[in-house]
Amino acid sequence: MSTIVATLEPDVDGTLHLPLPPELRHGKLKVTATVETVSPTSKAKAGCLKGIWMAPDFDEPLEDFKEYMEGGFC
Length: 74
Fold this sequence. Notes:
By secondary structure, this protein is mostly loops.
């Protein structure tokens, strides 16, 4: 069994289209849905970026901009 969590916007005709990963696109599926309205100002839930990481040197200056940062273009 797989769990898919998605926030969907209805099409103009009121239908919803759930994107499925390739491994679930063949054969029949049993789908159970819980429908909740989502506030436009809702904030991300804790843990929603689980698995995302930043490189340790993320804030370091880029070599490509070294000359610019040293004032070589003005």
